[in-house]
Every structure is written in structure tokens, then in C-alpha cells.
Amino acid sequence: MPPTTIDGRPISEMRQEILDSVQDATALLGLVPRLIEENAALRAQAEAAGREVERAHAEVEPLRNEMTRFRAERDELSEALGKVMTEVGALINELGPRFRVGRFSPFSREREGASPMPREGASPLPVDAAAARPSMTPVLASR
Asked: What is the mean pLDDT of the chain?
């Protein structure tokens, strides 16, 4: 009968398990330097990415502040324009009736007997204004 260990297994089986464990440990120890190199490279990449993020934050923060300022200016301008438009509307409502001669559509053909467009050959100016207009013909000096 072959020699056995305390737990009753043959020594040759135990020897094979030890050899397999040593081979596995040797293979794992061979991976350690490569893993250390990978770890160093990944750490360097992470630090570079962290610096890039900090740079991007430093670039974005002033832009955010500027955007906030522009929004505030836009809101102020909008409010001021609203006030101006309210005042203009009030002025139009107050002064508009004083300047309206009559209500008519610009598309109507006749307006109280007058055409909205002057007839061909007719002077668009009132008669007095046409007479007061200086002539464009040169004056010949007589000798």
C-alpha cells in the first residue's frame, strides 16, 4: 500500500496538488509586474482627466456668471420695453382720436367721394401748395 497523508490521501496526490499550486503561484507572480505597470498608467490617465475636468470647470464658471448677467440684463430690458410699450399705447389711445379724420380702410375704393389714390395726372398736393412751389424751369435773362 502506498504511503498516505494524515487525512488518508496518497502522498503522490498531495505532491501533485502542491506542484500545481506552486505553478499557479508562479504564473500569478508573473502577472504582478504587468498589473503594477497598468495601475501606474491608469493612475496617470486618471490624474490627467482630473486636471482636464478642473480646467473645464475653470473655463465654464466665468461663462455661467456671464450667462446669468446676460439673463438679468435681458429681463431688465424686457421690463423696460414693456413699460415703454405701455406708455406708447397710452399715448396712442389718448392722442389717436385727435388725429383721426375718419375711419376708412386703405383698401376701400372710395372714401367720402375721394379716391385714396390720386387720379392719373392729378397733383397729390393741395392747390395752394402746388402754386407756392417754385418752378423748376430755368429763367432766361432777357437782353
From this structure: 80
> What is the reported pTM?
0.41
Measured distance CA(120)–CA(101) in Å, rounded = 25
Cell numbers given for 23: 505553478
Retrieve residue 91's grid coordinates.
399715448
Cα-Cα-Cα-Cα torsion 64, 70, 75, 79, nearest 10 degrees, comes to 170
Question: Burial, 111: exposed, middle or buried (Cβ in 10 Å; 0-12, 13-18, 19+)?
Answer: middle
CB of 106 closer than 8 Å to CB of 116: yes
Q: What are phi and psi of 130, to 5 degrees?
A: -70, -35
**Secondary structure of 18-71 in the HEC alphabet?**
HHHHHHHHHHHHHHHHHHHHHHHHHHHHHHHHHHHHHHHHHHHHHHHHHHHHHH
CA distance 28 to 21: 10
The per-residue pLDDT for 130 is 47
Secondary structure class of 2 (helix, strand, coil) = coil
Q: DSSP character for 110?
A: -
Cell of 58: 475653470
Residue 103, C-beta contacts closer than 8 angstroms, at least 6 positions apart? none
